[in-house]
Specification:
single chain, about 350 residues, 4-stranded mixed β-sheet, 7 helices, about 30% strand, elongated
C-alpha cells in the first residue's frame, strides 16, 4: 500500500480531550485540522485508562464520565470534519522548502501543515509488556497489545491477561466474537468496575469464557506463529493453553517518545512554552495540555482547553498570513451546520 500524504492547516499530535477541543477552536476560525494518535481511537488516556471514571472539573458539568466527555467533544467538532490518523505514532519532523512542516508517522504516513500542535498529554502511550523472554518474537505473530479491530479475532482462540477495566471490557466484548476465550489474572480480585467484574464472572459460570485466577502467563511457544501460552498457577503448577492470540492488557506507559528529539526546549520531559500563546522555541510549533510546562502550570483538562484557545488565535496568523483575524462570539455567529 502506497504511503499517504495529508495536507491540513493545523496538524494536531494527540487526539485526547485537549487536542479534540483545539479542533473546535480552530474550526471557529475556519482552519482545517488533522489529528495523529498512537492509540487506535480518539480520547487519549480518558478512553484507554479510565473511560468510566467521573470527572468533576469540566465547566457546566457537575460530573461527567471520561468516556462521555470524549463523545461530547467528538460531537462538538463534527461540523468541522477533522481528519484522523489513528494507531500511528508521530516519528519525524522536517521543515519543508515552502515553510510547512512534514510529520511522518511510524507507518510512513506523511502530514503537511504550516502549524503543528503537540497535544500529546503525558506523551505517547506504550504498552506495559509482561516479562516473557520471547514475547517480542511473537509480536504481530499472535501477540497483540491493543484490540484495534475486534472482528480480527472472530472465531479465533484468544487468551487475555490482565485485571483492569481494559482486560475486563475486552473479555466481555470478545466473548461473543472469539471461538474460545480465556482470561488470566494473577489475583482473584480485579481492579475494574464492579459491574464489569460481575459480567466476567457470569460469563465464566455460563461456560462462555474460561477464567483463570491466581496465575500468570510465563511463556509462549509456536513455530513462527503463536499456538500456545504457558501458564503458571499458584496451586496447579504449570500448564499450556492452546491459542491463536495472546493479548496482555497491563496498561500503558506514557513517554514523550520521538518528539523529545525534535529540538524543542524541554524541562523534565515536558515542553517549555510561552504563555502568551503556548508556542514553543520553534516557530509554528505549539504545545498544549499536559505535555507542556510553564511557571504555575496545572495539569488539568480545563487548563488545556484555555491553552488550545489561545494557541489557535496565534496559529491563524501563520496559517492565514494574508487574512485579518476577526474573532466573534459563537452566540452571535453560530456554527455552520448547527442552530444558533
Amino acid at each position: 500500500m502506497e504511503n499517504r500524504t495529508i495536507e491540513t492547516d493545523i496538524l494536531i499530535i494527540g487526539a485526547g480531550p485537549v487536542g479534540l477541543f483545539a479542533v473546535f477552536e480552530a474550526g471557529l476560525l475556519k482552519l482545517r485540522c488533522h489529528l495523529i494518535d498512537a492509540l487506535p481511537y480518539p480520547g487519549g488516556q480518558l478512553m484507554e485508562i479510565y473511560p468510566k471514571k467521573p470527572i468533576y472539573d469540566i465547566p457546566g458539568c457537575p460530573s461527567i464520565l471520561a468516556g462521555d466527555l470524549v463523545q461530547n467533544l467528538m460531537n462538538q467538532i463534527l461540523p468541522f470534519n477533522p481528519g484522523f490518523t489513528l494507531g500511528e505514532r508521530a516519528e519525524h519532523l522536517e521543515k519543508q522548502a515552502d515553510g510547512r512542516w512534514c510529520v511522518t508517522t511510524s507507518r510512513g504516513t506523511k502530514h503537511l501543515a504550516p502549524v503543528v500542535f503537540i497535544a500529546g498529554g503525558l506523551g505517547s502511550f506504550e504498552p506495559r509488556k509482561p516479562p516473557i523472554d520471547n514475547i517480542e518474537f511473537f509480536e504481530d505473530k499472535g501477540v497483540e497489545y491493543f484490540v484495534r479491530y475486534p472482528e480480527f479475532f472472530k472465531n479465533r482462540r484468544v487468551v487475555i491477561a490482565g485485571g483492569g477495566d481494559s482486560a475486563l471490557d475486552w473479555t466481555i466484548y470478545l466473548a461473543e466474537v472469539a471461538r474460545e476465550l480465556t482470561l488470566v489474572h494473577r489475583r482473584t480480585e480485579f481492579r475494574g468496575a464492579p459491574d464489569s467484574v460481575e459480567k466476567v464472572q457470569e460469563l465464566a459460570k455460563s461456560g462462555k469464557i474460561k477464567l483463570i485466577t491466581n496465575a500468570q502467563v510465563t511463556g509462549l511457544h509456536g513455530n513462527g506463529k503463536l499456538d500456545g501460552v504457558v501458564i503458571q498457577h499458584d496451586t496447579e503448577g504449570e500448564f499450556t493453553v492452546e491459542t491463536d492470540y495472546f493479548v496482555p492488557l497491563f496498561g500503558l506507559t506514557p513517554k514523550l517518545g520521538p518528539i523529545a528529539d525534535w529540538g524543542l526546549e524541554l524541562d523534565k520531559n515536558a515542553i517549555v512554552v510561552n504563555t502568551l500563546d503556548y508556542s514553543t522555541n520553534i516557530q509554528g510549533i505549539y504545545a498544549i495540555g499536559d505535555v507542556n510546562t510553564y511557571p504555575g502550570k496545572l495539569k488539568l483538562i480545563l487548563c488545556g482547553f484555555h491553552e488550545a484557545t489561545l494557541a489557535c488565535q496565534s496559529a491563524f496568523k501563520i496559517a492565514r498570513p494574508d487574512q485579518k483575524l476577526s474573532f466573534k462570539y459563537t452566540t452571535v455567529t453560530g456554527i455552520e451546520g448547527l442552530p444558533l
